[in-house]
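Two quick folds needed for the group meeting slides. Do the first one here.
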Amino acid sequence: MTWPTVSTSSDDTERLGLLLGRQLKPPITVELVSDLGGGKTTFVRGLARGLGSKDFVTSPSFTLNNVYKGRGGLKIHHFDFYRLAEANIMSAQLVESLKERQVITVVEWGGIVLDVLPAKRLTVEFKPVAASENERQIVFRYPDTKTKIKLFKKLEAEWTASRS
């Protein structure tokens, strides 16, 4: 199942993350795919807010993993594997995160841990639009169509309403 949309600003990207966060139920893995500066951390900032977090969201490029508290004991584990040639111990931390029931696991630059990531994961891809510095095409993909058709339809409806 795929749902594409367009974000015209960082505020749009953050709002889209917020709307998705309101819908997600743990455990789930969200893989973020884009070039540097593509909007991943901005999206996670909204996602965390949508999951009830009041924590300050930053890129885990140097810390490799940030943990945020969400509503009702929920945790958001935000991994960034950009700087690593090999996952090593971070791969083990990711495996532990994936085992937890009350966790939303978010992964940036997941190419080196594809063998660890679950096949059933939500992938969000950010693609620049050539004519605009701020505009991004954002494509959501999830292999389980029955479960996620409802999610994508609701997300699309809320997204459309928020832009009116």
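Then this one, please, same format:
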Amino acid sequence: MHRFITCKSSIRPILTGWLFLFSTVTVWAQDTAPLRYTCYRSSQPPVIDGKPDEAAWSQASWTSDFVDIEGSRQPRPPLRTRVKMLWDEQYLYIAAELEEPHIWGKLLQHDTIIFHDNDFEVFIDPDGDTREYFEIEVNARNTIFDLFMPRPYSEGAHALMTWDAKGMRTAVHINGTLNQPDDKDRSWTVEMAIPFTALHLLGVPMVPGNGTVWRINFSRVEWDTDIKNGQYIKKTNPATGKPLPEHNWVWSPQGVINMHVPAKWGYLQFSTQAAAN
């Protein structure tokens, strides 16, 4: 009898532990489930000037605020990032708003590794097969890094940096100053018009129709910085002298620190219905 009671009491915390672990995993799995966004047709093409203030944009909904790439296991980002989208027969339009008290950017050459600056990134898989997909990055200086991935890096693929999003138009607006540490900024905003003709697979442009669903995600890279001699300098690890790891904030959480897992991206559904709040 005594042994039975001892055995029972030892099983209870084990079962409780397993139940807690199961519930935690379940909540985390729900937390990292891909998000969805319905993209409505634009009544008129927005002006690509970096300022999403046209009437057309006022009819589109913002996404939820970006979260840490790993999801709720990490704290929520201290700065807001969000996106809205529209489309017409020629373009996918993207507007992004990135809160930032200290706006800086150094890279000026096309197809340099833009995420060495703070940046905004777009990942698009038009046919949703988690294979051939496109990546576009932009910093606060409107410098572009665009590439095509035949498969994810985990499958042994290499980025094709010779791919360019031909005909794409982008603009950045600074709500504050650029590379001026002695004042406080508010945000920087991005506008993109990505032509469907640029997003072609096997030579076939990926032009959506009503109900078409793509896989898509957005990422923001944010570095911790110090101010030295009037310039922004990345904070370093005193033990190694190397920059601290960047923050990765995303629309649809990946669950891992890796954007190149297209199966984790969100869903973008196109609707021919006109955008209206």
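Slide caption for protein two: Helices lie at 2-31, 55-58.
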